[in-house]
Design goal:
The chain has 341 residues and is mostly helical. The protein contains 15 helices and six strands. A hairpin with a 5-residue loop joins β1 and β2.
């Protein structure tokens, strides 16, 4: 029968003693988790399904799980290289990586969170927690690692870490970065840096994500039907991005001389980000809060002025819910006031 007691550290320890089995014990941060685990474990003992994972957990470290994830990354990850960079960074920076699975607890995640918040923003910590949680969940669900629960699920996220971003591009900023990158709408890019300007120009016209721009090939461009086909998007679906006359004119220049399977933007995500940052600095824009992804915010807001029907707007931007679309719609109060009269 199970007994549950509170420890001096305010955690909850479960002891299960049953004939035919060695004593099983486990500690939890919350009493509810302890009760649930005790109930399920006793039920498995009765049916003969119980396996003492505690013993196995003493031989596996958190780092080993994360390294296995790097080797067997889920196919559902859209940008595996970027995900690998994030996971490797966490392996190097998280103090708890050396802990065995029978030792890892929500308190370890809390301590890491609080330490990390002293160095980076709340939103960055929130994204890091998403990555940590994703690895733990995958290991529990797919590999059946000996963990009773995902430790990240028991830890509060930094407050206001998911605040809607309302940074918009000013036209003067767009023009400055385009000039600094060497953008010429009549001339195909001759170096990687110039692609930063082209990415901005097309993103403003289409509201495409950076990952979508870097994925499309020459054969995905369908000027006769006025759309760009994007396979397997972030939402897990294929989509057709409607193209304005200006977008078609730009893409006509970009695809000139390309083979059908050639990528329209022949560079990696990290290279594009570096090219953008360099152009931004050369343009005299030292605002660290200005990001390449803000082009999608600006595009969605501009497109909303042409497409007042939210269903039509979401069809262009690729958002599956109104809530998601609202995060990218950032009208200026003065513009709304002008419409009110």
């Amino acid at each position: 029968m199970a007994s549950i007691t509170q420890t001096a550290q305010k955690t909850w320890r479960v002891y299960i003693r049953k004939r035919g089995y060695a004593t099983v014990t486990k500690t939890f941060e919350k009493k509810g988790d302890a009760v649930r685990w005790a109930s399920l474990t006793e039920a498995d003992m009765v049916t003969g399904k119980f396996v003492d994972v505690h013993k196995e957990a003493k031989t596996i470290t958190v780092e080993e799980i994360f390294k296995q994830y790097l080797e067997e990354m889920p196919s559902s990850i859209k940008e595996p290289k970027q995900q690998a960079i994030k996971v490797n960074a966490l392996i190097k920076s998280c103090d708890f990586m050396g802990r065995r699975l029978d030792q890892i607890s929500p308190r370890d995640i809390q301590d890491w969170r609080d330490k990390r918040l002293k160095k980076v923003s709340k939103s960055t910590v929130n994204r890091d927690m998403n990555t940590l949680s994703g690895v733990f969940s995958h290991a529990i669900e797919e590999w059946r690692i000996p963990l009773a629960f995902n430790p990240v699920h028991q830890v509060k996220r930094p407050p206001n870490s998911d605040v809607k971003r309302d940074r918009r591009w000013e036209q003067s900023e767009i023009d400055a970065v385009l000039t600094a990158s060497g953008f010429d709408p009549q001339q195909k890019p001759t170096n990687l840096r110039a692609y930063a300007g082209w990415a901005i120009a097309i993103a403003i016209e289409t509201a495409m994500r950076k990952g979508e721009l870097l994925k499309v090939t020459a054969k995905d461009y369908r000027p006769a039907d006025q759309y760009l086909f994007v396979p397997d998007t972030k939402n897990g679906e294929n989509r057709k991005v409607p193209l304005s006359t200006k977008a078609i004119a730009l893409l006509d220049v970009l695809v000139k001389g390309l083979k059908p399977t050639d990528k329209i933007f022949p560079l990696s995500s990290s290279w594009l980000a570096q090219c953008f940052d360099k152009a931004k600095l050369d343009a005299g824009l030292k605002d660290a809060n200005l990001r390449l992804h803000d082009g999608r915010h600006e595009a969605a807001t501009r497109l909303s002025e042409k497409l007042s029907n939210v269903l039509e707007l979401s069809a262009v931007t690729g958002h599956k819910s109104l809530q998601s679309l609202k995060r990218y719609y950032n009208p200026k109060p003065a513009d709304l006031a002008a419409k009110l009269g």
